[in-house]
Amino acid sequence: MHEDEVRLDEDDTPELVHWFDRPPVELNSGQMAALLALAFTGGALAAAGLLALGGRLRD
């Protein structure tokens, strides 16, 4: 075993696995639709802002 290798003890691994164990995210259809609408609106506003900063957006 080299000095740069790390050896994990068997007692430490269940705590590490438990820390990463997360329940899946569940969204109903209304929440998913609102999230998609928010993402689309945010992208459209960001694109319009970049066009305005670049001087390519006219009145």
The helix fraction, in percent, is 55-70%
The portion of residues forming beta strands comes to under 5%
Q: What is the molecular shape? A: elongated
Q: What is the residue-averaged pLDDT?
A: 78
The topology string of helices and strands comes to HH
Structural category? mainly alpha
Query: Rg to the nearest angstrom?
Result: 24 Å
The overall strand count is 0
- How many helices? The count is 2
Question: In angstroms, what separates the terminal alpha carbons?
Answer: 69 Å
Low-confidence stretches: none
Describe the largest sheet: none
Description:
The model has no long low-confidence stretch (mean pLDDT 78). This protein has helices at 13-20, 29-53. The chain has 2 helices and no strands. The N and C termini lie far apart (69 Å). By secondary structure, the chain is mostly helical. It has a domain at 28-59. The longest helix has 25 residues, at 29-53.
Write a concise synopsis of the structure shown:
This protein is mainly alpha-helical. It has helices spanning 13-20, 29-53.
How is the topology of this model organized?
Blueprint: H1 13-20, H2 29-53
Keyword list:
single chain, 59 residues, mainly alpha, 2 helices, 56% helix, 0% strand
